[in-house]
Q: What sequence folds into this?
């Protein structure tokens, strides 16, 4: 993409650019090439580079393509992140769940996956007394379990009920998804996969085994799948009235 | 009388303790149960030499942990997952043991030094069994790539 753009620039202009902003182009260039030719469109950043606010990860879920009764995204998340039902629904992990929406007037039913909405202004971060609940530069909202004291204020603050507390000890965690008793957890957008240039497990499973209802990508990049899909038609935020600017959007909700 | 016998007892105790120290010094190798953690066969050193690692591994892990969680820096050299993967000790069943097993690499020293390890309350204490197989299948049939092509197909409709 970007290399094509460079080739179009007239030679003299190109020389001028080289001499005038040589430093800027050399520092920017590695990032640009990597983003353009990453593993997927998501793009793998170099492992030794910090994430930046140049990207903001987002997800669009088209409810029309979400088959009723299908829970492929939920099982994929469970397998990827190593959580499962403890037999006590009231204390179960809430990384992702299918919610049924029913219009009481018409009786029409819809189903939608709900998870952490990765808000731009996350209330869970505002209330956290230790700084454990935080938003990464690229918009992914996480819990730093090293400093989480398990007070659960964030669970109360979240309007989406997207967080849950780990009530039991575990010794069978996944390598990429640490989780332990006494800390709060939630959807991470499969952060280690995203850092490696891959897409979240739910999105992958939905595309491979279900209706491909989920589109993941960089909201800041107008050329990304998710930005193009969002630009193509109307989409909705859950509880848009709160002004949290969630990174997860819904279509046909 | 009482004072004299107490003095004698103290003297005797001092002699016994002194002798014990002398013995320990002489036969430290045999007497004290110093842990001998098994080095991974794969490499002599991955990060730094043994003496340095014994004293400083916790500092590296702490430093890396904040960089990884908050900034997404996922270099392998100081990553806990990599430590656990190389230093895995196999149990009787041929599978890597968890931290609950006294043979676990970290535990051999930490039990001896009575220093509690918090890492494995959340982190996996052994490498994932199918990690290799999953990676192999990734290269031949990348699910991310197939998902992407599904997206592309969807966009073209």
A:
């Amino acid at each position: 993409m970007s290399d094509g753009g460079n080739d179009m620039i007239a030679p003299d202009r190109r020389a001028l650019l080289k001499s005038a902003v040589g430093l800027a182009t050399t520092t920017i260039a590695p990032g640009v090439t990597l983003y353009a030719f990453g593993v997927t469109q998501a793009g793998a950043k170099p492992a030794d580079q910090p994430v930046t606010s140049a990207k903001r990860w987002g997800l669009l879920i088209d409810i029309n393509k979400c088959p009723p009764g299908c829970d492929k995204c939920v099982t994929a998340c469970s397998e990827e992140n190593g959580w499962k039902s403890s037999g006590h629904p009231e204390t179960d992990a809430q990384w992702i769940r299918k919610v049924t929406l029913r219009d009481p007037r018409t009786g029409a039913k819809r189903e939608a996956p709900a998870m952490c909405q990765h808000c731009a202004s996350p209330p869970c971060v505002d209330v956290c007394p230790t700084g454990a609940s935080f938003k990464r530069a690229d918009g992914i909202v996480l819990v730093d379990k090293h400093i989480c004291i398990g007070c659960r204020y964030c669970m109360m603050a979240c309007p989406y009920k997207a967080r849950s507390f780990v009530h039991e000890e575990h010794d069978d965690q996944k390598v990429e998804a640490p989780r332990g008793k006494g800390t709060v957890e939630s959807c991470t957008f499969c952060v280690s996969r995203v850092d490696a240039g891959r897409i979240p497990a739910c999105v992958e499973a939905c595309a491979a085994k279900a209706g491909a209802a989920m589109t993941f990508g960089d909201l800041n990049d107008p050329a990304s799948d998710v930005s193009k899909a969002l630009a193509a038609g109307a989409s909705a935020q859950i509880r848009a009235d709160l002004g949290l600017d969630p990174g997860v959007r819904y279509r046909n909700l | 009388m009482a004072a004299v016998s107490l003095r004698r007892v103290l003297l005797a105790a001092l002699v016994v303790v002194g002798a014990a120290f002398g013995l320990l010094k002489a036969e430290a190798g045999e007497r004290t149960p110093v842990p001998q953690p098994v080095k991974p066969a794969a490499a002599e050193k991955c990060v730094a030499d043994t003496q340095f690692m014994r004293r400083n591994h916790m500092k590296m892990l702490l430093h890396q942990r904040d960089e990884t969680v908050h900034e997404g820096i996922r270099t392998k050299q100081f990553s806990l997952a990599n430590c656990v993967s190389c230093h895995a000790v196999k149990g009787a069943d041929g599978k890597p043991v968890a931290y609950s097993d006294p043979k676990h690499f970290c535990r051999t020293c930490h039990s001896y030094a009575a220093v509690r390890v918090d890492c494995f309350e959340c982190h996996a204490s052994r490498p994932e069994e199918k990690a290799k197989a999953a990676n192999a299948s990734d290269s031949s049939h990348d699910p991310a790539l197939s998902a992407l092509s599904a997206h592309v197909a969807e966009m073209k409709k």
The longest helix of chain B spans residues 2-26. Residues 58 and 64 of chain B are 10 Å apart (CA to CA). Chain B has two domains: 2-31, 50-130.
